[in-house]
């Protein structure tokens, strides 16, 4: 039959995952880092997800498609609910997270005795804090805070220090910390504020560190946008942290390539 149905432009999609919770029927999920329409029968074609995409990657097309099936949707949502409450093992390198929301990727992390070394470290060897500024939350940091002038800035998703045990030594040392959540906080506000910080403080470099879950990539998107809007040319380093606490990827890009 000919009807309205969602179309997702994969070239524009950055996998931020904001469209996933906006679809009440669960028709959209993040697969291999991109939003996908998992089944035509789950999509009612009303377009509730349209306003959630910051990249205009979602549109409504009128074309040949399977008929919307409300009964199938109810079964699908029940399955997603069951899966959200399962304790799943960590995904292998070849597997993608089940959707854009960390709440749907619940898992217990079991570590070997060799990994659980913290309780055996002598007190004299405990790593001291490398935090050199306060406050750290993006909402609370003044745009003209003195410690921002000429700083190397670390923009961190707020889960990353908990996942990466060596966060202070590997990432925070000699950097000014700004913390936020790209899923739960106002990403547009953060992007505008970061742009002003870059414009007013002669920042030397910007590093964005985020978790491997797709929705957390929104932190990278807002960092790129802020850098573009500021007109400042500086190094941008992007670091992805795994749920198990390892650094999965590290890449440096210039403003001209953001």
General description of the model:
The protein is α/β, with parallel strands linked by helices and 258 residues long. It has two domains: 2-104, Alpha-Beta Plaits (2-Layer Sandwich), CATH 3.30.70.20; 126-257, no CATH class. The protein has helices at residues 19-22, 70-84, 160-163, 167-172, 187-200, 218-230, and strands at 2-8, 28-31, 34-37, 58-64, 152-157, 176-180, 205-211, 236-241, 247-253. It has a five-stranded mixed β-sheet. Strands 1-4 form a two-stranded antiparallel ribbon. Helix 5 (187-200) packs parallel to helix 6 (218-230). The longest helix has 15 residues, at 70-84. It starts with a strand and ends in a 5-residue tail after the last strand.
Helix content bin: 10-25%
Coarse morphology: elongated
Mean pLDDT: 82
Q: How far from one another are the termini?
A: 41 Å
Main beta-sheet strand count, sense and barrel state:
5 strands, mixed
Tell me the strand order in the biggest sheet: 6-5-7-8-9
Low-confidence residue ranges: 85-100
Gyration radius, in Å: 21 Å
Total strand segments: 9
Element order, helices and strands?
Answer: EHEEEHEHHEHEHEE
């Amino acid at each position: 039959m000919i009807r309205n149905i969602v179309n997702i432009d994969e070239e524009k999609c950055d996998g931020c995952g904001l469209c996933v919770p906006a679809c009440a029927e669960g028709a959209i999920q993040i697969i291999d880092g991109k939003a996908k329409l998992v089944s035509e029968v789950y999509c009612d074609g009303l377009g509730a997800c349209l306003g959630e995409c910051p990249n205009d990657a979602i549109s409504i097309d009128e074309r040949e498609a399977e008929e919307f099936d409300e009964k199938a949707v109810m079964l699908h949502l029940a399955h997603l609910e069951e899966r959200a409450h399962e304790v799943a093992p960590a995904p292998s390198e070849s597997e993608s997270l089940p959707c854009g929301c960390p709440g749907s990727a619940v898992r217990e992390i079991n570590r070997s005795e060799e990994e659980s070394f913290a309780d055996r470290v002598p007190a004299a060897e405990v790593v001291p804090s490398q935090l050199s500024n306060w406050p750290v939350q993006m909402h609370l940091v003044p745009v003209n805070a003195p410690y921002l002038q000429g700083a190397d800035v670390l923009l961190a998703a707020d889960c990353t220090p908990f996942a990466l045990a060596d966060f202070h030594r590997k990432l925070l040392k000699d950097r000014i910390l700004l913390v936020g959540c790209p899923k739960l906080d106002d990403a547009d506000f953060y992007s505008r504020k970061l742009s002003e910080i870059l414009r007013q403080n002669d920042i030397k470099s910007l590093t964005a560190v985020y978790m491997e879950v797709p929705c957390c990539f929104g932190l990278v998107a807002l960092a790129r946008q802020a850098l573009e809007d500021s007109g400042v040319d500086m190094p941008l380093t992007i670091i992805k942290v795994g749920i198990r606490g390892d650094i999965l990827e590290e890449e440096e890009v210039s403003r001209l390539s953001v």
